Amino acid sequence: MRNMSTPVFTSGKLRLMVAHISRCGANLEEMLAEAARAGDVLDAKELFGKFALDAIASSSFGIESNSFKDPESLFRINAMKLTRYLILRSRLSTIDD
User: Fold this and answer.
1) What is the structure's pLDDT at 25?
2) Furthest CA-CA distance within the chain
């Protein structure tokens, strides 16, 4: 596993990811400013889940899915289905053991 993932995280490739993650950070900052102006209460888990998903989508797949402005994007919905399926499957496998 390490041999497969090591080439992905070279210093040069990490440097290329910074711009994508910074853009996601700017989207997060914009969303936080709007929420502060409106006086909204935010769910931290959901907020940073969207940020993490956007960072992974843009730096790994080149998909600009701004989950803050489009929470119902196809990429986000499918990613949520996949993670829920994997969590459920892992829980069920521990019951069988």
Assistant:
1) 94
2) 51
